Amino acid sequence: MRSLRLLQGLVLLCILLVPVAIIVFLKTFGNNRYDIPILFEDGVENPFMECDVVESGQHYIPEFTLTSQNNEQKGSKDMSGKITIVDFFFTSCPSICPVMSSEMERVDDAFRNQEDVQIFSISIDPEYDTPEVLNEYAQRHNATPGKWFFLTGDKSQIYNLARCGFILPTLDGGGVPDDFVHSDKFILVDELGRIRGYYSGTNRDEVDRLILETKILLHGKN
Q1: How far apart are CA 87 and CA 63, in angstroms?
Q2: CATH code at 65-221
Q3: Which residue ranges does the record assign to the Thioredoxin domain (predicted)?
Q4: Tens-of-pLDDT digits for all 222 residues of the chain?
Q5: CB 3.0-4.6 Å disulfide test: which of 89, 139, 160, 161 passes with 97?
Q6: Domains in the chain: boundaries
Q7: What 3-state class would DSSP assign to 27?
Q8: Burial 118-143, CB ≥16 within 10 A → b, else e
Q9: From CA 213, how far away is CA 35, in angstroms rounded?
Q10: How far, in Å, CA of 222 to CA of 210, rounded?
């Protein structure tokens, strides 16, 4: 009988200690934060001196202006104060671009009603990808007007922007679609123009992570 009472007492004590344990856990671990890194805080490596970049100190997206599918001027000034998701593609791409654009549709849909999030899809084949071609491509992918911009412009500016601004590998294919080389990465840029992450635009899990981290940055702005 005594052992039974002792057992009952221990069970009651454990029950009473559960709320205490929960409170201690929340106080100890409840303030943990999901930190999203700020990339290139110490500058960008520039061994061949091909880029006009700051080699020490925070790297920011440089000034640029391109033309959208609606013949509007869009660029770095429109990124200020907004979270921008960027990719480089071309409409005649036979390989990774269709997958990337389909995944970007998911990103567009996730932030359809968020004014502080926008998407820049920049063509690396601007000679073919005129605003008219981009407009048709935007409609094909159900791009949200005023949020998902498809951009074209001067080829040398775009390639320099990809390599030296967004720090991505990009090679001209000379008009042959199979010979263009570009990254499959989606780039997350914060409202100050700092790169916060790279995500494979052909990997659904990576795109899910991009959506999550964009939401975290968006929450941090408010």
Answers
A1: 17
A2: 3.40.30.10
A3: 55-216
A4: 555 555 555 544 455 455 444 444 444 444 556 789 999 999 888 766 778 876 679 999 999 999 999 999 999 999 999 999 999 999 998 778 899 999 999 999 999 999 999 999 999 999 999 999 999 999 999 999 999 999 999 999 998 999 899 998 655 444 444 434 568 999 999 999 999 999 999 999 999 999 999 999 998 865
A5: 89
A6: 1-32, 65-221
A7: helix
A8: bbbbbbbbbeebbbebbbebbeeeeb
A9: 9
A10: 19
Alpha carbon 6 to chain centroid, angstroms? 59
| Upper half-sphere CA count for residue 204 (Cβ side, 13 Å) | 1
Nearest residue to 170 via CA among 93, 60, 102, 105: 93
Tokens 């990997």 label which residue?
Answer: 203
